[in-house]
Design goal:
- The chain has nine helices and ten strands.
- The chain is α/β, with parallel strands linked by helices.
- α8 links the parallel β9 and β10.
Length: 259
């Protein structure tokens, strides 16, 4: 059972308690118009090209026999400026767990652990579950960042293996949720109710997207839903669209503002 990871950030202080390693898993069922990790949406490995810095030397298209050229149309290793990369590296559960465990003394000293983020880590729940089993056996604190869009059986299975959860509540109205994220929110709210009753420490989080999630009606409804539980408002990331040109895609939040 291999997992596909698009990034590993060492020593983050914004993804759960203490100093942490944050592992970003590829794949997400939502397609939020404001997503700042577009390379995490697809389960497939992708080519990222920093086109704005490209000098057009043509080195990446000369060797048509290279493996990356055959798959992506570019020879990744040929770029003299290192502007091309393949996003999406495979790990076995033991490979990833061993990497994390090697940092355990330092993570313990910082009161932290590992955070699984994405994308949506529950998209690769079997890999996540196996990896979590190894980490728990070695006493590593495990946190989960999730949008909650998963079968309740999957959610409860993973919930039993983590120590802390950061759970997104974006939009309370299901039709608006579908309009801006591509999916309705019923299963998200159902799993949120399971989280409330689980006994696992958690925090609800809402990204403050102008004129979408930060409206008075939406925030009042979220406040009512989260009453009695921790709730954080996350500032809008003004650099959210920076990676889209690297994937030859268009950041579409401007479209949402016109709807």
């Amino acid at each position: 059972m291999n997992g596909k990871i698009f990034d590993i950030k060492e020593f983050s202080v914004h993804d759960g308690p203490g100093g942490r390693i944050t592992v970003f898993l590829k794949g997400c069922p939502l397609k939020c118009l404001w997503c700042h990790n577009p390379e995490g949406q697809s389960l497939e490995s992708e080519l990222m090209v920093k086109r704005s810095f490209c000098k057009g030397c043509g080195a990446c298209v000369r060797n048509k026999e290279s493996e990356t050229y055959k798959k992506y149309g570019r020879d990744v290793s040929a770029c003299p400026e290192n502007l091309i990369s393949v996003v999406g590296k495979e790990y076995t559960p033991s490979e990833l767990a061993d990497k994390i465990i090697s940092y355990k003394p330092l993570l313990d000293a910082m009161g932290g652990g590992v955070t699984f983020s994405g994308g949506e880590p529950l998209m690769q729940y079997e890999f996540l579950s196996e990896c979590a089993d190894i980490l728990r056996e070695n006493g590593v604190h495990i946190a989960l960042e999730t949008c909650g869009f998963a079968k309740s059986k999957v959610f409860t299975e993973i919930l039993a293996k983590v120590d802390y959860v950061m759970y997104d509540i974006k939009i309370m109205d299901s039709e608006k949720h579908k309009l801006y994220t591509g999916c309705p929110n019923e299963i998200i709210l159902q799993n949120a109710e399971l989280l409330k009753k689980s006994g696992v420490p958690f925090v609800f989080r809402t990204p403050m997207i102008p004129n979408i999630t930060d409206t008075r009606d939406n925030l009042e409804r979220i406040e009512e839903f989260t009453k009695g539980f921790s709730w954080e408002k996350i500032p809008y990331n003004e650099l959210a669209g920076a990676k889209y040109p690297h994937l030859d895609r268009t950041y579409s939040l401007e479209i949402s503002e016109k709807i």
